[in-house]
Design a protein that fits this description.
Elements lengths: L1 H8 L25 H30 L13 H26 L3 H28 L8 H32 L9 H26 L1
Helix pairs in contact: 2-5, 2-6, 3-4, 3-6, 4-5, 5-6
Length: 210
């Protein structure tokens, strides 16, 4: 009985023992960035590397080999792409409107901003698909065509992912899930969407303008 009492006292705070811990151990956070945001930033870094591989092929064709861009006998609709660029850049401003609105407790601004962002992104993607239909050349026609479709198509795939994230954020916004104190569910997709916009500016400048 005495041995059992001593063993029990080793785990009983009342007897001077160590306090027993219940539940999972709290993770040691060495970063000041919250986990969802850090995860998104790491994902974006990996995506930049993928784009870098395509840009390497692009510059190899234009600089190392000195091939004309685009391929002889083909044209790229710079005007349409420029208009589409303006649409995508506008979506960053509407997203910023949504983000600043919820911080101030303005739910109308949040909903109008996030819905406008989604619609502008969907319009961008529709115009890009329509551009593919009327280009007049296929990815297999030349190395330049392969790189063109590869870079713009890769970005288009990222726009699709961004639209999926924005759709969830839009639904949550209209259901009243966000508040001035808690809106990470909007900030994390927002980081990704701003990345998509910035990457398109690089693609547009490199592929269409240069």
């Amino acid at each position: 009985m005495e041995a059992a009492s001593v063993a029990h006292g080793a785990h009983d705070p009342a007897h001077g023992g160590a306090e027993e811990h219940h539940g999972p151990i709290t993770a040691n956070r060495s970063s000041r960035v919250d986990a969802p945001t850090l995860g998104m930033l790491i994902f974006i870094i990996s995506e930049i590397m993928i784009f870098g591989a395509f840009f390497t092929a692009y510059f190899f064709i234009r600089v190392a080999q000195g091939d004309p861009w685009p391929a002889p006998g083909t044209t790229i609709p710079v005007g349409v792409a420029g208009f589409n660029t303006a649409i995508l850049i506008s979506s960053s401003f509407t997203l910023h409107w949504a983000e600043t609105s919820i911080k101030r407790g303005n739910r109308f601004g949040l909903r109008a901003g996030i819905l406008s962002t989604f619609l502008l992104g969907a319009t961008f993607l529709f115009i890009q698909i329509n551009e593919y239909v009327h280009l007049g050349f296929a990815p297999r026609d030349s190395a330049q065509a392969t790189i063109f479709y590869g870079l713009t198509g890769l970005h288009g795939a990222h726009v699709c992912i961004g639209l999926i994230l924005l759709s969830f954020a839009t639904i949550r916004a209209f259901r009243g899930h966000y508040s001035p104190q808690e809106h990470k569910g909007l900030n994390v997709p927002g980081i990704y969407w701003h990345f998509v916009d910035i990457m398109w500016i690089v693609v547009f400048t490199t592929v269409y303008v240069m």
